[in-house]
Amino acid sequence: MMFASIAQARPNIIFIFADDLGYGDVGAYGATDIRTPHIDRLAAEGMRFTDFYAASNTCSPSRAALLTGRYPLRSGVNAVLFHDTMEGLPPEELTIAEVLYAAGYNTAMVGKWHLGHLPQFMPLNQGFEEFFGVPYSNDEKNFFVYDGEQRIAEAVDQQWLIKRYTERALEYIRRKADSEQPFFLYLAHNAPHVPLYPSPDFQGKSQRGIYGDVVEELDWSVGQILQALEQHDIDHNTLVVFSSDNGAWLAMRDHGGSNGVLRDGKMSAFEGGQRVPTLARWPGQIPAGEVYTEMANMMDWLPTFAALAQQPLPTDLEIDGVDITAVLRGEGEHPPGPFFYFQLRPPKLAGLEHKLAGVRDNHMKLKLPREGFYPAFLEPLMKVGLYGHDLLLFDLQQDPGEQHNLASKNRGEVERLQNLINEFERNVKPGKPVEVSAAPEDQKGWENMWQGIVLTAALVLLSVILLLYAVVKLLANYLGKNRS
Ligand code: MG
Fold this sequence. Notes:
By secondary structure, the protein is α/β, with parallel strands linked by helices. Helices cover 33% and strands 16% of the residues.
């Protein structure tokens, strides 16, 4: 009996993840040209975070940090994985799914994994009992939907992806609603990452073009989930979290989203790259309409979910997040402490590099100098956030758009924050970086072929020149003889 009441107190957990959804793409965060009534409902009936950080400004490292509760450099997932990457999140890393499964939860994942596509790295080997989704981003070659370990044979038409994921999630909720065990459902959409594929029902419906159409379909999906929780009468016992893996991808122009007032976007350690819309709803447990304005981050979910599941974590594991159940219940504050930013460079251009880029403590942010790929004045043309800059200090409370550099005015604060970075670098042991690139292709055969073609062409050209020379010479001789 005792056990039953404890078990009932443990909520189902549904974590809905958008891909590249920006801070300015949701009504509850100020968007006026995209309708998101269902996501906004999470804010009205739950908690909206204004300063919630993804642990990276790109997909794979952000997801690694969410699932492990650790900065990505600890697991070594420092860069975006591709369809031909042969490595992934190390299987020995402890994931949220493994923690909750050990606590007696049913666990399922629907959607985008992006932490290694070989079997040993896939969700079924990281604590998920069920998997329906894709191993990587939707702009990759070899795009296949998996059901468990099986690839679904028919060609994937991406315009049905949000609907298929939603149907699968609803089916799972239906199947587990009456179970004695709580469940954890990780629903990670590929949207609104480019390329964009709204289904016909949503095409041309938003005021923000095709990008807005996709976000409105994503919002529809959230509505379906909330409706299912009510239908199955598990609304009161289910925590729903909605978030995004990184900021909007500004380089995609009207095919990328908006980060509102925040500077830059995906791939940048300015706020637009990492501060993401995040909402949590649990009727009766999270106060309705609450806005939380202190820092929290993606690595907090693992210890939080473990606490809700009453599952102790290994004491020797270095976890960077903290349990925020008191924050969620409106009964406490996030423990103070710095948050560290990392700058990722595109691996195909610059090799693996995921360096400490800055720190935020309270509302002050220090951003380390960057060499960058191009000078800052070109950024309005580029919009990829990889330009060079000096040491920057911002007061994010006064200046959320990071426009006014206070570094020269406030040397004391610069030094204090620099010390936090130094201390972090001294104490954190990085994992072996995941090798993102597949073995380089053997190009020797093609080189041989081109050598042959060039040599033949040169010989032909030389022969033609010699022949022409001979003809001209003969002609000149002939004409000369005739004249004399
Ligand atoms: Mg992403």
